[in-house]
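Minutes, project check-in
Item: structure for the 139-residue chain
Input as provided by the requester:
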Amino acid sequence: MVKLTDEMKEVFLKNMEILHAVPMATASSKGIPNVAPMASVWLKDDDETFWICDNFMVKTLQNLKENPNVALYFWNPETKRCLQVKGNVEIKTEGSEYEEMYKQVKETKPQFPAKSLIVLNSTEVFECTPGSVAGNKVL
């Protein structure tokens, strides 16, 4: 796993502050892609793990069950800096991490079902900012 730098974390946090969601790309076992906005996303204390709440996933959840490889894209609209984080996920519907996520979601958005916790372990980070750095692997 790779740890995000403070600068990378700032891009993620600004994205969530302004845009309130990050796109998550998945693919089925046959390679059929899907992209969906994720609004309940947290970077955990270790700076290499994202928690994503499954509130309304259908195709995304099916893809995750077939193929655990995903990509998140986040962007700071103020600086135009953007990054792609790739990794693999684990789906949790019980246990202490799931319970912590469930409680957190219910405290702020009681109408959301918080069906499962998607734990994304970051394995690579790529630059998406336009220009000569676009596409460069940074972690």
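Outcome recorded: The helical segments are 6-19, 59-66, 96-108.
No further action items on this chain.
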